Amino acid sequence: MTYTLILLRHGNSDWNQKNLFTGWVDVRLSDQGVDEANRAGELLAASGLKPEILYTSLLTRAIQTANLALEVADRLWIPVKRTWRLNERHYGALQGLDKAETLEKYGQEKFMEWRRSFDVPPPVLDDDAEYSQVHDERYIGIDGEIPRTESLALVIDRMLPYWESDITVDLKAGKTVLVTAHGNSLRALIKHLDGISDADISELNVPTGIPLVYELDENFVPIKPAYYLDPEAAAAGAAAVANQGKK
Ligand SMILES: O=C(O)[C@@H](CO)OP(=O)(O)O
Q1: SS3 breakdown of the chain: % helix, strand, coil, rounded to 5?
Q2: Which of 11, 17, 45, 144 is the most exposed place for a label (fewest CB within 10 A)?
Q3: How far does Cα 57 stand from its chain's mean position?
Q4: Edge-to-edge strand order for the sheet containing 53-56?
């Protein structure tokens, strides 16, 4: 039995376009992001893959992306499960800051440590800060504590239990699963699936809006390398993410 899992990072957002650290701030897709999401739907339709259940984060940009893509693929009707556990990494006090200015102010080493180290979280975001989510109604009553900052390691800690309790159950039932989430929550899942080391994961960047397809064995181990439905655009997109911050 082979299980099919499709990962999709949301399309370019207003804050991706402005080059701002985003994290849990609920920004929407930019016009470019809307185009990318529609294109993701075209790629899905052309691939013949048919998602049977959708998982999304609680963030609008991921939900918009999934809805646009599924509409184009004529599968807007499939069941949906949303969870904060697929949210983007909480970027702490960096949320809302300009990436280029942050790079200039703190230097390349600190900047990259905050962006891509495995277990160094950015400084904590105060609860009364403009871009805090502690009073956001969507997080009231979640099964866990709202983060004030997160490293990739902490994202794995909150994402993996959900992967095991819910997503793998649908895969095991034979469903083709679409997960629409974020650069860093998907890096966390890809790290787990591909067994990437804590050191090497810093090199991995996920492009916006291009479906990534996994075929997994019954132990959820890839039977071959995952592939992007548009590999050329994915390579260019990943390079663009890696270069964020540089002016
Ligand atoms: O700002 C963010 O939340 C993320 C994703 O856009 O950025 P980065 O790629 O720098 O981790």
Answers
A1: 45, 15, 45
A2: 144
A3: 8
A4: 80-82, 53-56, 177-181, 3-9, 212-216, 227-228
Reply yes or no on whether the pLDDT at 241 is more than 60. yes
Please check whether residue 168 lies inside any domain of the structure. yes
Under 8 Å between Cβ of 10 and 37: yes
- Mean pLDDT of all residues in 197-220: 98
CATH code where residue 175 lies: 3.40.50.1240
Rounded Cα distance between 136 and 125, Å, is 14
With b meaning 16 or more CB within 10 Å and e meaning fewer, what string describes 124-141?
A: ebeeeeebbbbeeeebee
Is residue 90 annotated as involved in ligand binding? yes
Tell me what pLDDT residue 245 has.
76
Q: Which residues are catalytic?
A: 10, 88
Task: Tell how far the Cα of 172 is from the centroid of ligand 1, in angstroms.
Answer: 31
> By the 8 A CB rule, do 93 and 122 touch?
yes
pTM: 0.97
215 within 8 A of 90, measured Cβ to Cβ: no
| Residue 247 resides in a domain | no
Cβ of residue 32 lying under 6 Å from some atom of ligand 1: no
With respect to residue 213, please indicate whether it lies within any of the assigned structural domains: yes
Counting the structural domains of the chain, the total is: 1
Q: Is 184 a pocket residue for ligand 1 (Cβ < 6 Å)?
A: yes
Strands 177-181 and 3-9: what pairing?
Answer: parallel
Q: Specify the pLDDT at position 244.
A: 84
Q: Output the pLDDT for position 247.
A: 56
